Amino acid sequence: MSQTEGVSAESKSREAARRMPAPDANAIIEMIDVHKWFGQFHVLRDINLSVNQKERIVICGPSGSGKSTLIRCINRLEEHQRGQIIVDGVELTNDIKKIETIRREVGMVFQHFNLFPHLTVLENLTLGPIWVKKTPKAEAEETAMNYLERVKIPEQADKYPGQLSGGQQQRVAIARSLCMNPKVMLFDEPTSALDPEMIKEVLDVMIELAETGMTMLVVTHEMGFARTVADRVIFMDGGEIIEQNEPEEFFHNPQSERTKMFLSQILKH
Amino acid sequence: MSVPNSGEKTELPPPKTQVGVIGWLRANLFNGWFNTLLTLIAGYILISTVPPLIDWLFLDAVWGMVDPEVCKQAEGACWTFIREKYRLILFGTYPFNEQWRPLVGVLLLLTVVGFSCNRRFWHPWLGAVWLATLLIYLMLLGGGVLGLTPVRTELWGGLPLTLLLAVVGIVVAFPLSILLALGRRSNMPIVKSICIGYIELVRGVPLITLLFMASFMLPLFMPTGVSIDALLRAQVAIIIFVSSYLAEVIRGGLQALPKGQYEGAESLGLTYWQTQRKIILPQALKISIPPIVNTYLGMFKDTSLVAIVSLTDLLLATRQAFADPEWRSFFVEGYVFIAIIYWCFCFFMSKYSQHLERVLDTGHKR
Q: What sequence ranges are listed for the domain ABC transmembrane type-1 (chain B) (predicted)?
């Protein structure tokens, strides 16, 4: 009996933690009571999430659960309709200046890379620094080459994205974001469009990035990556955060039925 | 049981019937009864039309400076007519002794066009060069400075007029149509409805109507004493007309770009105009090259409609040339001659656009 009480107390406190994130001086992203609708469809419901600096978060959940929408709200690729999102002390509103400020601080990597096909790899990397940060061209190119070294494709600098493999393109996309020297990196299913043999090269780059202390929010189905890298795994379903925990606990001791079912489906093979 | 394939295969030449002239003929002209039939029909049409055409154009044609009566006896074309009237056709009613001025102007304009076609010269200063060129062009034709006799725009004519209308039309309509296309896709309701209104209104009326309105109705609304030059009015009508078509062509290009391109640019923090200028327009314009050139070719030939508002463009000048009773019967030669001129310019535009498509291709099709 005392055991059941313990569990319910624990789940209650977890429930409390889910709803009311403790204000944290260290937090770089705060989402408070965020709601979003696509037309009539309630795609994000009452999202409360606080992300600390250097924290690495993996967000998973079935398709249509709102996980991509959640991270796309953080740099305003999607607009939230209720609640507050505060990134690095700046609250996201309709003010375009604030949006641009936040986008400078937040890098994003997309499922389909979204590289600019009419520019060379090097031009893709220097475009943001030169035009947004007004970095001198030579300096921007030097930085760009450094990041290309880090993602291990410096020899592709003068090629066009269309000439690279999917894995190489995604590494260029990561380098492009890093060139802006962001404080937070968002990854929206970065390996979902890749052939199996290319997934590892991208994950390796992401793991290295995590080791440098970058704050990362990663939407992915790569549970191996979640186990090795994440500080926290968040499970979403139906537009809600159902459960969040350290990876060890999350995978071995899932609390909600929906989490258990999801895990059993994706970890089956 | 599968055995690993070891040892090299000898390289064999392809069968004789598939290569060389015979192979090509078989593959392209005589594969199957239907194609063979088509080949024979096409061959018959060519044989029965090409030799007579060559006879008329060249072999039986009259080339010397002869009397019109001699020309009428000839079997072929009378190119004497062109030799006699080429100055009227090319320069229209422009004063005969001053026709070196439009000639210099046209040569200058074509030189600048030629330079602008080269990507190496695509710099901001090219805009200044263009502005200077157009000013010099207008000064040369209009006179009144540097001791040049003033020539009223009503007297301008022929090729210099056609080229002026076409080139200024192309150059001015282009940025205007980009703004219209962007405006139509804008989120701002007022900008958007203005652009939609403009495009749909202008596209819905014939160019002739616009030219008439610009020429005859506009002056009615002007305060007395104020008059706008007839040439300028026609030019503005052409620009307004072409830009509405071009805007829709460019909008098509904008819509063809995946949403990810906007998101990629936005996620880097680029502003709206930076995104348009650096990411969206370069790609959208590139994929719109064929329809843009299509619109321009149409416009180039539509400049001949300015004849209805009494501007002596290339076509009207030609018609004036065979208004001469002595040469009245040689209108075919006149039309053939200016058809060749129109065709040369259009063919150049078409070839140049294909060249642009090739050099701008970065192999990103997916």
A: 159-348
> Largest Cα–Cα distance of chain B, in whole Å?
100
User: Best mutation site among B187, B262, B268 for testing chain A: the one with the most A CBs within 10 Å?
Assistant: B268
β-pair partners for A206: none
Q: Do A127 and B270 touch (CB under 8 A)?
A: yes
Q: Which of B239, B237, B281 is nearest to B256 (CA)?
A: B281
Q: Considering the entire predicted model, what is its pTM?
A: 0.83
Rounded CA gap, A166 and A106, in Å? Answer: 23
B-contacting residues in A 61-90 (Cβ below 8 Å): 75, 77
The residue extents of the domains of chain B are 45-93+314-342, 158-311
Q: How far is A122 from chain B (nearest CA, A)?
A: 14
pLDDT at B163: 92
Beta partners for residue A86, in sequence order: A30, A91
Helix (H) or strand (E) holding A202: helix A196-211
Question: How distant, in Å, are the alpha carbons of A100, A125, B78 from that of A93?
Answer: 11, 28, 76
Q: CA-nearest residue of chain A to B281?
A: A118
CA dihedral A114, A119, A123, A127 (to 10 degrees): -60
Nearest to A116 among B274, B279, B366 (CB): B279
Q: Distance of CA B6 to CAs A173, B2, B3, B9, B222, Å?
A: 43, 12, 9, 9, 90
Q: With DSSP H G I counted as helix, E B as strand and the rest as coil, what are the percentages for chain B, rounded to 5?
A: 75, 0, 25
**Segment B94-130, tens digit of pLDDT:** 888 888 888 999 999 999 999 888 888 888 898 899 9
CB B167 within 8 A of CB B323: no
A48 phi/psi in degrees, rounded to 5: -125, 120
User: Residue B171, exposed/middle/buried by CB under 10 A (0-12, 13-18, 19+)?
Assistant: middle
What band does B2 get if pLDDT is binned at 50, 70 and 90? low
How distant is the Cα of A47 from the closest Cα of chain B, in angstroms? 22
Which of these, A56, A87, A29, A68, lies nearest to A209 by C-alpha position?
Answer: A56
- B110 three-class SS: helix
Pairwise CB contact (< 8 Å): A110 & B263: yes
- Whether residue B267 and residue A104 make contact (CB cut-off 8 A), yes or no, is no
Instruction: Give the SS3 label for residue B363.
Output: coil
Give residue B113's Cα distance to chain centre: 12
Most A-contacting residue of B263, B267, B279, B288 (CB-CB within 10 A), to test interface: B267
pLDDT-derived band at A189, boundaries 50, 70, 90:
very high
Q: What is the CATH number of domain B158-311?
A: 1.10.3720.10
